[in-house]
Amino acid sequence: MLNFEIEKKQGLARVGVIHTPHGDIKTPAFVGAATRATVKALTMKEMRELGSQAILANTYHLVLRPGTDLIKEAGGLAEFSSWHGPTFTDSGGFQIFSLPNVKINENGVKFKSHIDGANFEMTPESSMQAQWAIGADIHMAFDHLAKSESYEDMKEAMERTHDWLDRCVTEHQRLALANTTNAQYLYAVVQGGTFLDLRAESAKYCAGKSVDGFGIGGVFTANGMDKMLQTVNSILPEIKPRHLLGMGQEPIDLFVGAEYGCDTFDCVGPTRMARNGSLYTLDGRINIKNAKYTHDFTPLMADCDCECCKNYTRAYLHHLFKTDEITAKVLASIHNEHFIVKTVDRIRESLLNDTFKDYKESFLARYYKNNK
C-alpha cells in the first residue's frame, strides 16, 4: 500500500506526506500537468526551481507519441523526462471521451488518433499496461466520461467506471506481481458529476476496493464543489490520499479542495492562461497584452520571488507578448505555475499553524475584489 502519513487534521482538511518511490510529496500540493511528459513552455529544471513537487502525465497522449515501449526502454517517465521526482499518470479517459466518433462498449473504447487518424482501442487492462510501462508512481483507473451532464448519462458513466475499476484492480495486481522491483500504485476514480447521490454511491464503491488512493474526476461547478467534496471525502477512507483531477486554474478551487479533504491537485490552466498573457497577481488576473502595461516598469508581482518577477518588468513582458516572442510564454508560465504551487504551499502552512480560515478569507477577498 502507498505510504500516506497524516501530520495534522482540521475538519476534513489535512496536512500530510505521500511517500513515493521517487520521493515525498508534502500535501496539500499542486502537481504540474506534464501532459506529454513536459509542462508546456517549461523545462523540468525550471519546474524544480519554481517549487513543484510532482508531475502528472497523460496516458492517452503518451500512447500516441512517443509510445509507451519507448518510455519503458528509457527507464520510465521520471528518467525519460529528467524529472527524477514523484510522478502520476491519469488514464487519458477524459481526452479519449472528448474525441469525435468514439465507440464505447462494455469492453472498452475504440477511437482514432487526433494526430494521424490511426485506429486505437483502450480497455481497462490496456490502460493499466500502458501506465505500468510509462512507470509513474501513481496511476489512475480507466474511467468513463459521461457524454452529457444529465442524470441518466452520469449514472451510466459511473456504473461503467465501477465495472472498469474492478478490471483495473485485477490487471494492476497481476502486473504488480510480475514487476516486484518497481512499486507502482493505483487510484480509483470517483464519478457522479454534480449529483450528490451518485457521488456518494461512487465514493462508497471505490472505498471498498483494493486501491491505494482516489482521484475525484468528472464535472465540477464552482458553486457546488464544496458540497460534492464534503460528500465524497466524508465517505472515502481517511488513511488514503485523494487527488482532485483537473482542478486548480482558479485559486478558489485550491482553497475549497484543501478545506474539504483533497491532498493533491493538477490542472493545465495556469500555463495555458500564461501562454495567452493572462497572469496571476494577488489582486486578480491581468492581461499583460493590454496597452496600459506598455510603460509599466514595475515587476509583475512585487512580492513574488519567481524568476520572472525578480528580473523583468510588466513593460518587458508586454513587449514580448506584442512581438510574439517565445520567451513571453516561458516567463509567463514560470510565474503562473509558481503562483499556484506557492499558493497551495501556503495553504499547507496555514493548516499547520491554524490560520487557514484567515488566510483563505484575506487571499480570496483581495484576489476577487474586482469581481464583486
Can you characterise this structure?
- This protein has 372 residues and is of the alpha/beta class.
- The protein has two domains: 3-266, TIM Barrel (Alpha-Beta Barrel); 274-371, no CATH class.
- It has 15 helices and 16 strands.
- The chain has helices at residues 44-49, 59-64, 68-74, 77-81, 93-97, 124-134, 151-178, 196-207, 225-233, 251-259, 269-275, 307-311, 314-322, 326-352, 356-367; strands at residues 3-10, 13-20, 23-27, 29-33, 55-58, 87-90, 103-104, 109-112, 119-122, 138-140, 185-190, 213-216, 242-244, 264-267, 278-279, 286-287.
- The strands form four sheets. An eight-stranded parallel β-barrel has the order 4-5-6-10-11-12-13-14, surrounded by five helices.
- A hairpin with a 2-residue loop joins strand 2 and strand 3 (23-27).
- It starts with a strand and ends in a 5-residue tail after the last helix.
Please provide a brief summary of the model.
This protein has helices at 44-49, 59-64, 68-74, 77-81, 93-97, 124-134, 151-178, 196-207, 225-233, 251-259, 269-275, 307-311, 314-322, 326-352, 356-367, and strands spanning 3-10, 13-20, 23-27, 29-33, 55-58, 87-90, 103-104, 109-112, 119-122, 138-140, 185-190, 213-216, 242-244, 264-267, 278-279, 286-287. It has 372 residues and is of the alpha/beta class. The mean pLDDT is 96.
Key attributes of the depicted protein:
372 residues; alpha/beta; TIM Barrel; eight-stranded parallel barrel; three-stranded antiparallel β-sheet; 15 helices; 16 strands
